[in-house]
Amino acid sequence: MNRTTILTAVVALASLGGALAMRPGPAPQVSYEDTGQPLFPSFTDPSQAASLEVIGWDETGARNTSFKVELKDGRWTIPSHNDYPADGTERMGKAAASFIDVKKDIYRGDRPEDQSSFGLDDPTDANAKERGQRITIKDASGTVLSDVIVGKKVEDKEGYRYVRLPDQKRVYAVKIDVDISTNFTDWIEKDLLLIEQDQVVSFMSDTYKVDESQGKVTGSDPLLVKKDAADPEGSWLLGEGSTAIAGKELDPFKVKQAISGLDRLQIVGVRPRPEMLTLQALQSKGFFVTRDGSRLYGNEGEVKAICDDGVVYSLYFGEVTYDSGLALTAGQEGAEAAAPKPEDEAAAKKDANRYMFVDVFYDPTLDAQATAGANPDDAPGAKRAKQLSARFGKWFYVISDASFKQIRKPKVEFFKDAPAGSGAAPASPAAPAKKPAAPNK
């Protein structure tokens, strides 16, 4: 090999070595002057939190979603759901605590064009690709305690999420356990009726239907059952005016099952009831009144539960709704009529929810705890009925189809085959049938 060839080879090797030396290695973790500092330094006490708002994006409906909980006049309410009462003290405390002592752990970039890859686009931006969830917490004076857009989970770091402040470009990976539900039913009182099974001494079910085209009530055949006071096990007997089914006897288990459904009844949505009820407001939800205004009907029947303190619950079942999301839970934007019945029968059964109207009153003649000569208005049952009436008087409720079917059973389902040779259980003397009054259409 001559000298020129050797020099050429040396130069080539040197060039290769230089290229290798200049090849970029793993990007070093970049630290900024604020890395490691608190994300919200002035937010140190969860009890400061008086409101929480979460803004997200509904892919199915292609629109923003908003869920808000706020402390008003000493009570928690859900403004995004017409100020429905919230059971928010414990849940709000946990949500607020999620942002206490959160540090700006790892810097991940400042370029706006990279925000989509972190899932940190503004959820209100119509042109965004990968929207985050904006979470804002304020104190009682309206001062912002924390305001942040939360994005995707960090793949290589357990318990970390990408975040950025809404008015800034900088992205951080932070260790945070965001425990915030935007599910309406997670924030409300689970025991809607505030009724205990042992309180119920009488139960009535009538699965009539309202023929809206003719203004008639059809299929009315009320079943009334009463707790057997002489039986310590609490068995049930047919009430006056209720007739047994030939060859059948009352099934106490089915009675208890229906009453248990009342005790565990949970709602899936609410609609504000106007202060002055109108026929239009009632009929839009499937409820009808008689021409003289003395009687209410639900187009799918009703049940009553009478308690030992004289409190009487009346539940009327109305129209079906197939709405979902905020249209279901809050009736937003008048979307109730925008959700037609699914063509698939299985889907219709799955998606069916139903309006319910609750009425509560006190009947002193049914109060087993009443004291002779006492003022009925001072009775504990009267006071409880007044509180419950105020609780229910502002709302139409939406319940699931499963709850509806557990509570409102066809009469035949309350009976079982009588043992061989025993014959059917004797029926109570039937009272003269009363023709239901025609409701106003």
Helix content range = 10-25%
- The total count of helices amounts to 8
Given helix and strand content, the structural type is: alpha+beta
Low-confidence stretches: 1-28, 334-338, 425-435
Q: How would you write the strand order of the largest sheet?
A: 4-3-2-1-6-7-8-9-5
Distance between the termini: 109 Å
The radius of gyration over CA amounts to 32 Å
Percent in strands: 25-35%
Query: Biggest sheet, in brief?
Result: 9 strands, antiparallel
In one word, what is the shape? elongated
Taken together, the total number of domains comes to: 2
Mean pLDDT across residues:
86
* SS elements, strand count: 23
Describe the model.
The chain has 441 residues and is α+β, with helices and mostly antiparallel strands. It folds into two domains: 46-186; 197-417, no CATH class. The chain is built from eight helices and 23 strands. The strands form five sheets. Strands 4-3-2-1-6-7-8-9-5 form a nine-stranded antiparallel beta sheet, with helices on one face. An eight-stranded antiparallel beta sheet has the order 14-13-10-19-20-21-22-16. β6 and β7 (144-153) form a beta hairpin. It is elongated and about 85 Å long. Mean pLDDT is 86; it is low at 1-28, 334-338 and 425-435.
Short description:
The chain has 441 residues and is an alpha+beta fold.
Features:
alpha+beta; 8 helices; 23 strands; 9-stranded antiparallel sheet; disordered N terminus; 2 domains; 441 residues
List the helices and strands and how they pair.
Layout: H1 3-22, E1 51-58, E2 63-72, E3 75-78, E4 84-85, H2 89-97, E5 106-109, E6 133-138, E7 144-153, E8 160-164, E9 171-175, E10 200-206, E11 209-211, E12 216-218, E13 223-227, E14 236-238, E15 248-250, H3 252-263, E16 267-272, H4 279-283, E17 287-289, E18 296-298, E19 302-307, E20 309-321, H5 325-329, H6 345-351, E21 353-367, H7 380-392, E22 395-400, H8 401-407, E23 415-417
Antiparallel strand pairs: 1-2, 1-6, 2-3, 3-4, 5-9, 6-7, 7-8, 8-9, 10-13, 10-19, 11-12, 13-14, 15-23, 16-22, 17-18, 19-20, 20-21, 21-22
